[in-house]
Every structure is written in structure tokens, then in C-alpha cells.
Design brief:
Layout lengths: L10 H4 L11 H10 L1 E5 L4 E3 L7 E5 L3 E7 L5 E7 L4 E2 L1 H6 L6 E6 L1 E7 H10 L1 H27 L2 H16 L13 H8 L3 H13 L3 E4 L2 E4 L2 H8 L4
Antiparallel strand pairs: 1-8, 2-7, 3-6, 3-8, 4-5, 4-7, 9-10
């Protein structure tokens, strides 16, 4: 792990072509860099807890963040994963609400903390930035609507295939066609919305059918079209 004094400055993750901060003026960008705090977070650390006040948002330079809600029985329901370039916690900050989810590091990485008052200032002052925030919120709302529809209309088998496709699209595959995110069977079940035993059985079925290969937590995608067919991605 890098030492804290070896951490690069926040401008390494604010100037990307797809960054929501690309519309900031030079003066606003200087203020953002000056006011933000970069830090390396270890696996297992929690950024914020559901039901508590968030004092700012996080921009992910590297690593993976798990964002989830906790049910009455203590079971996690994973909402999404954050990766490089994503900003998390902004909705609760802008709505001035308590956090509706918990965010936990599952792969060590560098994140920049941005104070809430600075984010709100940019939203009020910069129409281009406000528009980027609005597009991001609309996309997340669309994803949530799709997830609700899938829970209601698709079988567990179809949802698992769709989740594997989604993870492939978000995190990509390495040269061996292996997903570049490593999840426990319980975490997969918490995304799909089913029991861990069901996911274990279905993964075994997918392997026997030649759709995937399993190496511990690692999942190799062997037949993308087969997964699309099962997930009903195509009519």
C-alpha cells in the first residue's frame, strides 16, 4: 500500500474527459483541488453509514466501492459498485438528507473527499456542472427503475446472467476473459436479490453449460451471447 505522503494530488482525477468537473472554471478548479482531500482507503473501510449525515462526497480515482442498503434482518442489498471516475454520496448531500445507503471499500484505492458546501456552491454557480450532476442522477434513477422491473419480472437465473453482463460492461475483462472484480458468492446473491445457495447452484449450472468458468472468487466469461440469451437481453 502507498504511504499517505506518496498520494498524488486530486487534480489527477478531476481533469478527465468524462469527469463531471470538466465544466468548472479555472478558478473553481483551483478551489476544488485546494479544498479536496485525497486519501488511500483500505479494503473493509466504510466511507459513510446509512442513516447518518454525510459531510461531503467522494470521487474515486482508483479502487472499488460497494454501495448497499441493509434490511431489517441485517441482510445487505447491493445497489451498485463505484469505480474509477465515479462520484458517490452526492444525492444525499444535494437533497440535504441522511445517507440512504452505506459505502464500503472492497478493493483498496485512492479517493478524493469533496466538502458538501463546495459541491453545492458549484451547483448554484455553474450551469454546466449542474447539468452534469442532473444527467448522472437521471442515469442512476433509470438504472434503479430497471433493477426494480427485473426483480418483479425476471427469474433468479435471468437476473444472475444479467448481473454478470453488467459487471462485464462496468469493470471489463482481463486478457484471460476474467471479470476484473472479485466478489464473494454472498455479495453476488446480494446484488441478484436471492439466497447465497441459489447463486452457488446457478453458477455451477452456468459452468456446466460452458457459459463461465470459476476459479475461487474469479469468474471467467466464456459465452457472452449465451448469457445474453438467458438474461433476455435480446427479444
Amino acid at each position: 500500500m502507498k504511504k499517505q505522503d506518496e498520494i498524488p494530488t486530486c487534480n489527477t482525477c478531476f481533469n478527465g474527459i468524462n469527469s463531471i468537473f470538466k465544466h468548472l472554471s479555472p478558478e473553481q478548479m483551483d478551489l476544488l483541488i485546494y479544498s479536496s482531500t485525497p486519501r488511500i482507503y483500505e479494503k473493509g473501510e466504510t466511507l459513510y453509514h446509512e442513516g447518518r449525515r454525510i459531510s461531503g462526497v467522494y470521487c474515486i480515482e482508483s479502487g472499488i466501492v460497494k454501495i448497499y442498503k441493509t434490511g431489517f434482518d441485517g441482510k445487505e442489498q447491493i445497489i451498485m459498485f463505484g469505480k474509477q471516475g465515479d462520484i458517490i454520496g452526492y444525492r444525499s448531500v444535494l437533497a440535504n438528507e441522511l445517507a440512504c445507503t452505506t459505502a464500503k471499500i472492497i478493493d483498496e484505492g485512492l479517493l478524493c473527499f469533496i466538502p458538501a458546501n463546495l459541491l453545492i456552491q458549484f451547483v448554484k454557480e455553474n450551469p454546466g456542472f449542474s447539468y452534469e450532476i442532473m444527467k448522472l442522477a437521471c442515469k442512476e434513477l433509470g438504472d434503479a427503475n430497471q433493477y426494480i422491473t427485473d426483480l418483479a419480472q425476471k427469474s433468479v437465473r435471468e437476473r444472475l446472467a444479467e448481473i454478470l453482463l453488467h459487471l462485464t460492461d462496468k469493470f471489463g475483462l482481463d486478457t484471460y476473459q476474467t471479470l476484473q472484480i472479485s466478489l464473494t458468492r454472498e455479495e453476488l446473491a446480494n446484488i441478484v436479490g436471492t439466497a447465497t445457495e441459489s447463486v452457488i447452484r446457478l453458477l455451477s449450472d452456468f459452468k456446466q453449460s460452458g457459459l463461465i468458468d470459476l476459479q475461487g472468487r474469479k469468474i471467467k466469461i466464456l459465452d457472452m451471447n449465451g448469457l445474453k440469451h438467458i438474461s433476455n437481453a435480446f427479444p
